[in-house]
Amino acid sequence: MKWTKETSLIKRHPGSSVSPRRNLTIWVALFFLFVWALSTHPHASSFNDQSRMAAVESLVQRGAWIIDESPFYRTVDRILVDGHFYSDKPPVLTFIASGVYAVLHDGFHLTLDAEWCDFDESPCHCRAFCDDHSDWAYYLLTLLLIGLPSALMLALFYSMTGLFGLANPAALLLTTILGLATPVFPYSTVFNSHVPAAACLLAGFYAVLRARLSSARDECVHRWLFVAGLLTALAFTFDLGTILFFVAFFGYAAWEPRPKVGATTASDGRISDQERFCPPGSAPLPRLLTTCASMVKCLPWSYLLGGLLPIALMAILDYQVVGNPLPPYMYTRGYDYAGSRFPQTIAGNRSPQNVWLYGLRLLFGDHGLFAFSPVLLVAVVALMRVWRDRADRLRGAAATIGLTSSLFILYFILFTDNFGGAAYGPRWYTVFIPLLFLFIAARWGNRTFGGEAERRPTTAGRLLFLALAAISVANSYQGALNPWRNGSPLLRLESALPGWRDPVNAALSGVTFEEIEPDVMAAFATRRVDKRWFDARSCVVIPPGPTWLFVDPGTPVDPALAERSGLTSGGDLACYVDLQPARDTYVGQLTTSAWISPVLVPADPDPRTRVSLPANFGGQITLLGYELLSDDVSAGAEVSLITAWRVEARLEPPLAIFIHLLDQQGGMAGQADGLGANPDGLRTGDVLLHVHRFTIAPDAPPDRYWLQVGLYNPETMHRLPLAGIESDRLLLAHVELTNR
To answer: How many distinct structural domains can be found in the chain?
Structure first.
């Protein structure tokens, strides 16, 4: 049967009664937009959205994609191209956001702020209207480009349920569950690509359905196919994995039942194309060529034409960023730089060590799609029932969406190993969730697409559905409090493998993990490697236990650190070593006396309190002791100080140590700031030996100076407080400046 206006996609079952349905589409959109307005976060709180904000801010304020000067440049989601850093995200969404930000910045004088939001301390969970330091530029960008498309997507979903004759109460309930009981909720509150891609996919599929509902002779079919290609390709430019759906929707739009070979007339009484071009008795070869030509002629070329526009835009923007039309994710050598956290692979991903275990965790385990949103199981069952019903005209759609979603899921199981980073659930899968929910409406509506009538759910079935929805809402709400933090679903499956190996410790200076020799990699005997990145010219990281140590000749170990840790001070270094004995011996020899004082530079009569080290800063890191390598120095000379630190909890980057040499008036006669290790890679129990070298001001007069130490965030200048002590610094020792 052809898909025409006369044979409408919607068919009433005999004996069914459908009450008039009130259209509440606009109110659905306004409701969710209001919810998202209250829930949207006021700060870029992950490397993911910081990467996009870095590019947006750079485009508007410096007219370039280079993010070196952006306050968000510390994101790890970046690539190095010709000596400059760029965001590694697909650029189309960033380009659109830069246009919106230009209006906010130039017209309303709003500026993006790189300040992080502390979700553990804020009673409002970092919500814009009760946060004292909201970044309104980020908030409005997120609300306009993420929240608004999300609200429109849910309104479109509600409207599409009318195609299936779903009564208003059931349609509103199903739309609410889609919005609040799935990852749509958390990822409508922060800046990301998944929700806009999901909105484009749903709208693109709606356009494909409208095209198939139109007559083959109706000019509207080409318009709908053009819109479908445009929207689905736009989803691809936002989220590259959705290329699978672009191809699948093309195939679905091209598929149409054809008259059997030998048919003499079309259904409307006209001569069919097959009879016109292939009269009975014609030779096989001409018939084959004519059939192929007819198939090519019937392909939805307008769909491809619509898709060409956003893909061409993406290629142009890609060329501006990396110098070729491929997305930044595919510029694999861009991940090769000191401190990079990613291998030189597509999007910095690698395959999991145990595919089966990883897949289990990604679907049903601690990061599981169906563990966080068990209500999706109902959608999968509904899709399967549509596909099994041979009389249902949505059977092809069910096969298309089911197969494509399965391939989408399989790709991330086979070619990633990080669950999408620190995030609520497997965020990648958000894009196809609205498509799956359509099939619940298709089976529960009063009208179906020509298939078997669906029996009303039993009371037990309804209670089960509501229970799964309630669990999903609870999980989703927890995720919405902070989508950029790993959550724990209420119900999940766990698997304990025999022979589980602890991860191997590794510390790298000037070496990327992918540069390690294969035979050395094989010696790890596991792919679970805890990597630390440091600069051996100023710091040595000593993990709690034996470690693999890799140092490039371009970043040799500082001689003073080498002597105290038992390492060689020059050349290439690659060894498996236990540095704990040397570390414990050295730490036991350090000076452990320090002072605090309410006076910036206390003189002898001023109050000061002696403090015995170790001393903890901010509950994150502890100063174990220090060694001043030179006591008596002169103006213009170099001061060398070694400090020893132990990591107590996850460090919150960015973080730097400050060493100040203070004169009697509180002025700085010399200073050294920085942290010679990447705080993202450090783990609890790691010990850092840090050497600080700085030159005293050449005009500093001979006198007695104080050395003070502390830690601070170089972006906010906020210092870490001492635990249990009302101070954010320690006075270590006097330095006597003498005449030359």
So the answer is: 3
Instruction: Specify the amino acid at residue 36.
Output: W
CA atoms within 13 A on the CB side of 593: 5
Dig out the tokens for 515 from the structure: 């540069």
User: Is 447 within the bounds of a domain?
Assistant: yes
Residue 272 placed within a domain = no
Q: Are residues 446 and 328 in the same domain?
A: yes
CA distance 293 to 287: 10
Burial class (CB in 10 A: 0-12, 13-18, 19+), 693: middle
- Which helix (H) or strand (E) segment holds residue 620: the answer is none
Longest dimension (CA), the chain: 116
- The answer to whether residues 420 and 538 belong to one domain is no
| Mean pLDDT calculated for residue range 378-385 | 94
In this predicted model, what pLDDT tens digit does every residue of 67-96 receive, in sequence order? 999 999 888 899 999 999 999 999 999 999
Please give the pLDDT value at position 4. Answer: 38
Print the domain residue range for 174. 23-256+300-481
pLDDT confidence tier of residue 415, bands split at 50, 70 and 90:
very high
Residue 628: inside a domain: yes
Confidence of residue 512 (pLDDT cuts 50, 70, 90): confident
Say whether pLDDT at 514 is over 80: no
167 & 232 share domain: yes
Q: Do 36 and 143 meet the contact criterion of CB atoms below 8 Å apart?
A: yes
Taking the C-alpha atoms of residue 504 and residue 508, their distance in angstroms, rounded to an integer, is 13
Are both 603 and 630 inside the same structural domain? yes
Average pLDDT over residues 522-541: 85
Same domain assignment for residues 597 and 582 = no
Q: Give the separation between CA 726 and CA 597, rounded to whole angstroms.
A: 10
Q: Distance (Å, rounded) from C-alpha 725 to C-alpha 376?
A: 51
Judge contact between 159 and 434, C-beta under 8 A.
no
Among residues 536, 566, 587, the one where a domain terminates is: 587
Average pLDDT over residues 271-279: 43
Beta partners for residue 122, in sequence order:
none
**Beta partners for residue 642, in sequence order:** 627, 691
Which of these three, 587, 609, 641, is where a domain ends? 587
Q: Whole-angstrom Cα distance, residue 200 to residue 193?
A: 11
Residue 542 has pLDDT above 80, yes or no: yes
Q: What token pair was written down for 49?
A: 């959205």
Determine which helix (DSSP H) or strand (DSSP E) holds 544, and give its type and residue range: none
Res 260: pLDDT: 38
Distances (CA, A) of 5 to 10, 258, 415: 10, 17, 44
The conformation of residue 591, written as its DSSP 8-state character, comes to: B
As given in the structure block, the two tokens for residue 127 are 């919500």
CATH number at residue 603: 2.60.40.2550
Helix pair 91-108, 301-322: axis angle to 10 deg: 70
- Please answer whether residues 728 and 719 qualify as being in contact, where contact means their C-beta atoms are separated by less than 8 angstroms: yes
Of 152, 174, 151, give the one whose Cα is nearest residue 162. Answer: 174
Task: Quote the pLDDT of residue 266.
Answer: 43
* Residue 235 within any structural domain of the chain: yes
The residues facing 627 across adjacent strands are 642
Regarding beta strands 609-612 and 632-634, do their DSSP bridges make them parallel or antiparallel, or are they unpaired? unpaired
β-strand partners of 671: 660
pLDDT value at residue 736? 86
More confident position, 501 or 102: 102
DSSP-derived secondary structure for 57-72 = HHHHHHSSS--TTSTT
- Interacting residues of 111 by C-beta distance below 8 A, sequence separation 6+: 105, 137
> Which tokens is 476 given?
């989703």
Q: Are residues 576 and 610 in the same domain?
A: no
Are 101 and 192 found together in one domain? yes
Is there a single domain that holds both residue 47 and residue 190?
A: yes
